[in-house]
Amino acid sequence: MKIQRLTQNSRLTAAILTAVMTAGCLTGCGGTNDTDAPAAAQTDAAPPETDTTETASSAQESETTQETDDSENLTALELSKLMGNGINLGNTMEAYGRPELGINADTSKYETFWGQPVTTEEMIAGMKNSGFDSIRIPVAWTNMMDYENGDYTIADAYLDRVDELITYAINNGMYVIINDHWDGSWWGMFGSATEETRETAFTMYTSMWTQLAERYHDYDESLIFESGNEELGNRLNDTDICKDSGSLSEDECYEMTNRINQTFVDTVRATGGNNADRFLLIAGYNTNIAKTCDDRFKMPKDTIPDKLLVSVHYYDPWNYCGTDSGTQWGTHGEYETQNADLKKMTKFTEQGYGVIIGEYGVLAKDDGTLKDSITAYTENLLDNCDRYNFVPMLWDTSTFFLRSELTFSDDDLLALYTSRSYAAQEKTSEEELAAAATERMDTALVNAPEVFDTSIDVSTLDGSIAWIMFNSRDWSVAYSSGDSYKPDDKAAGLVATDAVIDGAGTYTISLDFTGTDAGFAEGTAFSAIGISNAEVFYPGYMIDIKEIEVNGTPYELTGTPYTTSDNGICTRLNLYNEWVTDIPDTARIMGGNAADAAATVVDNETLGQIKTLKITFDFVAP
Question: CA 26, CA 41: separation in Å to the nearest integer?
């Protein structure tokens, strides 16, 4: 049977008609003993049955002129426009309560384990009315799966509860994405040192998606399956559950990611029916834009054309989006960086793949308030999505849409989202949308300041400046932690002493954390010496550290550092960068044994509270 392609309104109408018929049947028959029905169907306030295809088809023939079997011809790029704005039902079905609750608790216990309320259809309707056309429902399926004992069966109660949530969304004319999301990081089994464990992971993964594909096969194109989350990549080496994980090199992580994604497509397609041409969302490598655009990441082969999309996440710069350290956003360089980052994903749209920004957002501060510049940040991101036909999906854990109150937390953001909904833009052509978005982006870029801190000499930004890129271990304190020199991207109260580079010589740079809220930085999650534009003005030069002082005391490095460049512009020397596992062939090493070269040359376990950090180095000509 071919699937009807239903418009937003006709899908809702069909669902309502189905609900009426279902309610009548339940009343006339005195209930149901069908164990495959959602658990809530046993109550008086029963949601509609999920198998609505036949009824929807009948309703559609009389309700709309779009009654052809053209869903098979709908492409991923066409779907992207229909999906409009998206939002995540965050910290809900992916809340991992298994260690504390076991695998047999009531589903509501898992659903509320990370502080969210039990989801109601009124909440989903409120999201729809706030301008969101799609919803991503992250799920931790092993919450109710006894996989350690070789039983990969997902409990019916968990399947039923997710079924209810899918139905809520489709009732409200929304597209839905479900995945397997972190899930206690069982994904580390793929990086096990034992081949048997790695193959067990594939058996478990295949079983999981076979169950999901068969359980939800009656849904039309409104339901999209996503192969994973951020774990497809370096986190295949996670040791949270699989203690002998960590065996994969980055090249091998790419190979394993590609194999997992191919397994996902093959498994879903093999179940047939509506799954034979269902849209499938492929998780990018680490869901990171740069890593996903790497040629080592391969989109899987499919049995049907134009039905695959790719997912990445965007929380850059993390200092602003994810911590209290960055207080504002919107310099000329920050607009340029966001625009350049998102444009990279046109690599996939040019090949016919849809692109979904599966998570993005500026998280609330620790006190629950929203950050300055959040509307400007969000508007520019949405403009990029309009320009390139990407689907943006806000990460939300009742920060923006307040589920219990059924209200939106910020009027400016609410107005922005409602203006960008599918309904608001339905009659605007893609060309017109792209042109309007481009005009807004260009205007924002022209009007953006070079820096916010008026004490900074803007003229130095065009030369070479040495500084310490830094993020504290808890990500609460940061200073200009990317390859672009951004001296006003810093924690409040932090004092940085940077150095103007005018050729070979000895330079000193430092950070003083004593004026920050805590008065110190707790260790480091990332740190490096950066020299802006040095690859342009001083190609081939090397950084030779002469002395590091932590809290005024000399500190001895634990390995041999090396000079490199990630972007061909900024020269850097990593002090603590645990994400780099393979030393590049272009690494420039100043003495020492090349075999000892590392991107992590400080011991984060013993750094402790850093009040001051000072580095003296020689900048050495080749």
Answer: 9
Does the annotation count 332 as an active-site position? no
Cα separation, 158 vs 462, whole angstroms: 56
Decide if 257 contacts 233 (C-beta within 8 A). yes
Task: Give the per-residue pLDDT at 70.
Answer: 59
List the Cα angle 142/143/149 in 5-degree steps: 55
Decide: 4 and 54 in contact? Cβ < 8 Å: no
Give the separation between CA 101 and CA 110, rounded to whole angstroms. Answer: 8
Task: Calculate what percentage of the chain has a pLDDT beyond 90.
Answer: 79
Q: Which of 230, 231, 250, 334 is catalytic?
A: 230
Q: Which long-range contacts (CB under 8 A, 24 or more apart) does 562-568 make?
A: 562/587, 562/588, 562/589, 562/590, 562/597, 562/598, 562/599, 563/587, 563/588, 563/589, 563/590, 564/588, 565/535, 566/483, 567/483, 568/535
Residue 334 has pLDDT above 60, yes or no: yes
Catalytic residue among 94, 164, 221, 359: 359
Over residues 88-108, mean pLDDT:
98
Instruction: Quickly count: other Cβ atoms within 10 Å of residue 322's Cβ.
Output: 18
Longest dimension (CA), the chain: 89
C-alpha count within 13 angstroms, C-beta hemisphere, residue 110? 30
* 3-state SS assignment for residue 299: coil
Q: How far apart are CA 405 and CA 6, in angstroms?
A: 31
| pLDDT tens profile 462-520 | 899 999 999 999 888 999 988 889 898 888 899 999 999 999 999 999 999 999 989 99
Exactly one of 94, 111, 164, 181 is catalytic; which is it? 181
For tokens 């790029």, the residue is 77
Does 94 participate in catalysis according to the annotation? no
What's the one-letter identity of residue 388?
Answer: Y
Angle at 216 between CA 107 and CA 417, to 5 degrees: 80
* Mean confidence (pLDDT) of the chain: 88
Q: Is 181 considered catalytic here?
A: yes
Q: Is the pTM of this model over 0.70?
A: yes
Selection from 473, 467, 466 nearest residue 578 by Cα: 473
Confidence of residue 590 (pLDDT cuts 50, 70, 90): confident
What does the DSSP assignment read for 342-410?
HHTTHHHHTTT-EEEEEEE--PPPTTSPPPTTHHHHHHHHHHHHHHHT-EEEE--SSSSEETTTTEES-
Q: Residue 161 has which token pair?
A: 């509860």
Q: In sequence order, which residues have a C-beta less than 8 Å from that of residue 438 and are 6 or more positions away?
A: 383, 387
Encoded tokens for 292: 């996903």
SS3 116: coil
- DSSP readout, 31-100? ----TTS-GGGGSSSPPPPS--HHHHHHHHHHH-S--SSGGGG--HHHHHHHH-SEEE-TTSTT---HHH
